TrEMBL record:
Gene Ontology terms: cellular component: chloroplast thylakoid membrane; proton-transporting ATP synthase complex
Keywords: ATP synthesis, CF(0), Chloroplast, Coiled coil, Hydrogen ion transport, Ion transport, Membrane, Plastid, Thylakoid, Transmembrane, Transmembrane helix, Transport
Subunit relationships: F-type ATPases have 2 components, F(1) - the catalytic core - and F(0) - the membrane proton channel. F(1) has five subunits: alpha(3), beta(3), gamma(1), delta(1), epsilon(1). F(0) has four main subunits: a(1), b(1), b'(1) and c(10-14). The alpha and beta chains form an alternating ring which encloses part of the gamma chain. F(1) is attached to F(0) by a central stalk formed by the gamma and epsilon chains, while a peripheral stalk is formed by the delta, b and b' chains.
Function, in words: Component of the F(0) channel, it forms part of the peripheral stalk, linking F(1) to F(0). F(1)F(0) ATP synthase produces ATP from ADP in the presence of a proton or sodium gradient. F-type ATPases consist of two structural domains, F(1) containing the extramembraneous catalytic core and F(0) containing the membrane proton channel, linked together by a central stalk and a peripheral stalk. During catalysis, ATP synthesis in the catalytic domain of F(1) is coupled via a rotary mechanism of the central stalk subunits to proton translocation.
Membrane topology: Single-pass membrane protein
Protein name per its UniProtKB record: ATP synthase subunit b, chloroplastic
Entry-linked CDD domains: ATP-synt_Fo_b (cd06503)
InterPro entries: ATP_synth_b/b'su_bac/chlpt (IPR002146)
GO terms of molecular function: proton-transporting ATP synthase activity, rotational mechanism
Length: 184
């Protein structure tokens, strides 16, 4: 192994006479090596690099086109959404106005219904009072009639004797007989 290492180290010590060898002066050989490498890369890599750049350019253009299409669709959807929003806002305003109108209408209907119910209850109360008054009046009449009848019977019984009583009964029977003949 020492021989291999010695041979590489000794390359730097070769004389510069007209023979072929390696130049170990980095500053002198670097620009030449770089020019050769770049020339080879440009010559052989020009097509590959051109294809890569064209592909990259197409991908960028496709991405831009897709972005423009997406932007256009997004703008279109935004306009549709704004139109729907305007429509919904108009409907909401309509519902609000109609709702307030409906509430007012229902309020008036409720007030009218309550007024009618109160009126019916008042009428029912008045009818009940009138009925109760008539019942009380009829009851009082019956009691007065009963008392008057009892008083009259008492007076008649005390004033009438048997003979007068029999004549009164006969006269009443006669009146009923006459009435029966008239009806027949």
């Amino acid at each position: 192994m020492k021989n291999v290492t010695d041979s590489f180290v000794s390359l730097g010590y070769w004389p510069f006479a007209g023979s072929f060898g390696f130049n170990t002066d980095i500053l002198a050989t670097n620009p030449i090596n770089l020019t050769v490498v770049l020339g080879v890369l440009i010559f052989f890599g020009k097509g590959v690099l051109s294809d890569l750049l064209d592909n990259r350019k197409q991908r960028i253009l496709n991405t831009i086109r897709n972005s423009e299409e997406l932007r256009g669709r997004a703008i279109e959807q935004l306009e549709k959404a704004r139109a729907r929003l305007r429509k919904v806002e108009m409907e909401a305003d309509e519902f609000r106005v109609n709702g307030y109108s409906e509430i007012e209408r229902e309020k008036l209907n409720l007030i009218n219904s309550t007024y009618k119910t109160l009126e019916q209850l008042e009428n029912y109360k008045n009818e009940t009072i009138h009925f109760e008054q008539q019942s009380a009046i009829n009851e009082v009449r019956q009691q007065i009639f009963q008392q008057a009848l009892e008083g009259a019977l008492g007076t008649l019984n005390s004033c009438l004797n048997n003979e007068l009583h029999l004549r009164t009964i006969s006269a009443n029977i006669g009146m009923f007989g006459t009435m029966k003949e008239i009806i027949d």
